[in-house]
Amino acid sequence: MGAARLEDTVEALFTEEAARVLATLIRLLGDFDLAEEARQEAFAAALEQWPRQGLPTNPRAWLVRVGRNKGIDRIRRDTVFRTKILDRETHVVGGEEPADQDLIDDDWMSDDRLRLIFTCCHPALNLEAQIALTLHTVCGLGTQAVARAFLVGDDTMAQRLVRAKRKIRDAGIPYETPEPAQLAPRIEGVLAVVYAVFTEGYAATEGDQLTDAKLCGEAIRLARVLDALLPERAAIMGLLALMLLHDARRPARVSGAGDVVLLEEQDRTLWNQEQIGEGLTLVERSLRKPERVSHYAVEAAIAALHAQAPHKEATDWPQIVGLYEVLLRLHPTPVVALNHAVAVSMVDGPARALDLVDSLAARGEAADYHLLHATRASLLARLGRRGEAREAYRAALAVARVDPERRLLTARLEELREAPERGDSAKLAGMCP
Amino acid sequence: MQYLLMIYSNEKETLALGPAVLGQMSQEYAEFTKSIVQAGHFKAGDRLRPTATASTVRVRNGKTLVTDGPFAETREQLGGYYLVEAKNLDEALAIAARIPGARHGSIEVRPIWALGET
Fold first, then answer.
1. Which residue from B88, B111, B117 is facing A174, i.e. has the nearest CB?
2. How many Å lie between the alpha carbon of B62 and the closest alpha carbon of chain A?
3. From CA A291, how far away is CA A295, in angstroms rounded?
4. CA A305 to CA A314: how far, in whole Å?
5. What is the largest CA-CA distance in chain A?
6. How many other CB atoms are there within 10 angstroms of residue A248's CB atom?
7. Is residue B31 one of the residues assigned to a domain?
8. The domain spanning residue B95 has which CATH number?
């Protein structure tokens, strides 16, 4: 019984310390694979020794020290590897045995976590590799879990990780926090990875909901780590706020039958008020920063206006339109333009919004984006142009890939068939994220 | 580490810039080269004559085949290179970003793979 409890403690400790220990071992050993193996050996040694000798006073320092020694043993055994490592990281082997305090000094360990994040999110790696590597090494998800999250096979994901780690080593991607002049653009890159992890979890996919919730959770956790390590940065606070506000609606987004529930039809009592409160505080703080306004913060401000409306009729659409106009200047994407049109329809009516959507469609930027067609369809229906609306819904169905979204579009199409006399209510507001 | 910085640009567009702009660019290249020599990064570097002067050699079944022109038709052509010493990729990328040609063409940055290195 006592042993079982120690095992639980050790297990919990490993989970908590895995990423930190890895981050520091990569710095000390100068190689991702070597550090992962060394960590594994250190954990195995701990499982063997701790039950007999009791927990060390500083388990993290113990794991780092043992891992470092295991790694050095391995370098000494592997002569080919040794030449490579010695060539580049002369400080690894030899030199004085560092004191525990140097190995696990809190500032150094924090810096190591940042180094690991910036290295995994280096722009010389493609975005897919950045995301996979971040989930695997920073968040500590196993290869299988990362593969499941991105709906690819385990072998494909393992390959992707191997290639990414090889590029880090062979191309000489540094294990460093960027220079001050490079910091802001590199933070943008890291945030793009974090947001991609979140979006992957948040998009209504057929993937299992537990995996999706885990991805959103990891993205939020990463943003919290970044906010703690690089405090008071408008973009980081803005993204954290945005994710908290979106994630707060998670319990209301999917019906019992697994169907998508649009924003305007959601049961608002299911929204997570604590998360909304935290999100609101962060948006305000982010927007008050003297730095250039972050597009994440503007998106978060829009999400905040939705979150603050007790019922859909109370939504402050004029202010949302204004925020989308700011966003169109900061971050002009077809999705933003589309959401702007939706908001305009709630203020000025569907005719003006349809003009905006049609001009977006004419630019051909979002032809394969199902929400473009779905939004057109919905606006046409509100204008009573039912034939054209049905056609637009069919165009949306032709490009929509995810089942819950296809079911939603089919249902809208059916409504247009079944009740030709009834005026269509605007099923539109919910189309924005 | 050593990196090869390969300078690619569209030859036709570059030539169309005219003598005044090209003269200015030569001046910038001279200043850039001087600066990386002084900083200790420079190992080697040259510009190349246009692809119209290129020949391609293949040996198949013991026979040597020589053809006119570059190996592949691409939108951008290799126009020059620098071989530099840099402490890591970030430093190499920062040097590459200062090459005058980076402003209209592109620079491919590749680590040198020394013989004997795995």
1. B88
2. 35
3. 12
4. 10
5. 85
6. 21
7. yes
8. 3.30.70.1060
Per-residue confidence band for B103, with pLDDT thresholds at 50, 70 and 90: very high
Segment A15-45, tens digit of pLDDT: 888 888 999 999 999 889 999 999 999 999 9
The C-alpha atoms of residue A355 and residue A120 are separated, in whole angstroms, by 43
Residues of B contacting chain A (CB within 8 angstroms): 1, 3, 86-90, 92-93, 111, 113, 116-118
Residue A177's SS3 state is coil
Measured distance CA(B41)–CA(B3) in Å, rounded: 10
User: pTM of the prediction?
Assistant: 0.83
Q: How far is A2 from chain B (nearest CA, A)?
A: 48
Residue A107: both structure tokens together:
């500032």
Q: Which residues of A touch B117 (CB under 8 A)?
A: 84
Token pair belonging to A198:
């979140």
Domain, as residue range, for B50: 2-111
Please list the residues that pair with B77 across neighbouring strands: B9
CA-nearest of A200, A174, A171 to A118 is A174
Q: How far apart are CA B13 and CA B9, in angstroms?
A: 8
Helix (H), strand (E) counts: chain A: 21, 0
